[in-house]
Amino acid sequence: MAELVFPAPPPVLIPVKGGSFFPVRRLYCVGRNYADHAREMGNDPRDPPFFFAKPADAVTIDGGPIAYPPCTDDLQHEIELVVAIGADGSDIGAGEALSHIFGYAAGLDMTRRDLQAEAKKAGRPWTMAKGFDQSAPIGVIVRAGEIGHPERGAITLAVNGGVRQRGDLADQIWSVPETIAFLSRFVALRAGDLIMTGTPSGVGAVRRRDVLEGAIEGVGTVSTVIA
Predict the structure, then answer these.
(1) 13-225: what fold?
(2) Where is each Fumarylacetoacetase-like C-terminal domain found (predicted)?
(3) d(C-alpha 24, C-alpha 96), whole Å
(4) pLDDT tens digit sequence for 133-182
């Protein structure tokens, strides 16, 4: 075995309903996958899907606090359906995509919106706006074998008990199979990959000590507090 110059970082593990853990490899995110959110951000909802990434260690476990990140005055929430990939594949057809899914969870794509706006204006990457520490709280993963493959159902996010975001999975512009098929043309998907599938309208700023509670009907919940 090769000698390491320092200890390897621990794996990122998300609890799975029933007691096991899902090891995270990569985290892909779909931009603007709900028409109403695309419009509220000033974009055309008919555009094809595009993707950005967060590092695996941006994932935080459901219920734990996250720190208000530095270098921003506009931290915003985005509630999303998370797809957990359980089988490898590339150039996957939409008709075969569901067979590559291990399960689903609710997640939050936390965003430094002011940095994102600056990056958009300058034509620069969104990495510092989206991929910062603790930017991806994710709830317990539920096996697809238990809940099936949700195509519709309420998706909501409340801050301090008041609902901010409310939509339906049926409102996604690109379905989960279409998203997997499109993404797998560009990269080989592997077991352990996560795909965050976009957020409905109603995104907004959060402050320190705010309590965030997200829920997706038939899938699960995710919660955190801004430390």
Answers:
(1) Fumarylacetoacetate hydrolase; domain 2 (3.90.850)
(2) 27-225
(3) 22
(4) 999 999 999 999 999 999 999 999 999 999 999 999 999 999 999 999 99
